[in-house]
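Lab notes, practical 5.
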Amino acid sequence: MRPPIEIDLDYVFKALIGTVSPVLGVITSYQEQIEWHLRFASLLVGLIVGILSLVSMVRKLRRK
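Output from the prediction step:
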């Protein structure tokens, strides 16, 4: 019978750091492009909300 596996906490932290570090490097290198996409997405969401608000106001005015 095998003994239970003991997971060393230091090993877990090293594994997490080893996994997260390259991901942060990629995010940092693409930061400008990510920021541009976020700005563009927020602009689109703002335009959609504005258009939907305008449509709602026009419908309310026509009902009266």
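Observations recorded by the TA: Residues 18 and 58 are 56 Å apart (CA to CA). The first helix runs from residue 9 to 29.
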